[in-house]
Amino acid sequence: MANAQSVSSMRDALYEAPGPKTRVKMFVGTIVSLAAIAALIAFVVYRFWVTGQLSSRYWELFSWRTTWIYLGKGLLGTFQVALTAAVSVREDALHALDTSRTMCFGEVSDNIYAMTERLQLLGLIGEPTNTFNGDVLDAVTGFQSSYDLPAAACASPEMLSALSDAISALSGKTYTLDMQMQSALEICRLAAAKPQQYSVSPDGTWKRNS
């Protein structure tokens, strides 16, 4: 009890309760601040109205269901980019990787699946697959570049051995995998594959591309 009173006394000494004049000043300051914020908002709305920016033609797109779908997907993508994943590496839980053979674009095999399992743990590909497709090729070339290996369109025994060694070094450890670069590259790839659906006219309006 004595200790609690001592703490209370110390707090009162350091932070004296505001008197009547101070409370009035705080109240006036709050009112003035709120009035200033309201005036700023009113001025912005007024300028929008004067310049015609509140015209329905500028805001019509927000009444479209597709707009909110795209916004929702964008928000979800933003959260996914912002988040990081904690990865626990257990080499014994992965499929066996044969490092003695070369694998090239277009092939389908269990060994490709084993390779992509390891590439996924390094953040170079989204999901493991048994097909050597474009995503796998991007992951392979990304690994080759990161480990100063000769650039090639195939996964060579040298590259597979380096991949196996990299996973062995991480085995038994938990680390944080940053997905931001991977997500950004995916967004760029999708943007290049599907041109924009709308363009801006000289008057500031939007029009759908034919």
Form type: elongated
Estimate percent helicity: 55-70%
Main β-sheet, in a few words? 2 strands, antiparallel
> β content, as a range?
5-15%
Order of helices and strands: HHHHEEHHEHEHEE
Return the structural class: mainly alpha
Poorly predicted regions are none
Radius of gyration: 30 Å
Q: Order of strands side by side in the largest beta sheet?
A: 1-4
- SS field, number of helical segments: 8
Structural description of this entry:
With 210 residues, the chain is mainly α. A two-stranded antiparallel ribbon has the order 1-4. It has helices at residues 2-14, 20-50, 56-59, 65-82, 110-121, 134-146, 157-170, 180-193; strands spanning 84-88, 103-104, 154-155, 174-178, 198-200, 206-208. Helix 4 packs antiparallel against helix 8. The chain starts with a helix and ends with a strand. A hairpin with a 5-residue loop joins strand 5 (198-200) and strand 6.
Which short descriptors sum up this protein?
single chain; 210 residues; mainly alpha; two-stranded antiparallel ribbon; two-stranded antiparallel sheet; 57% helix
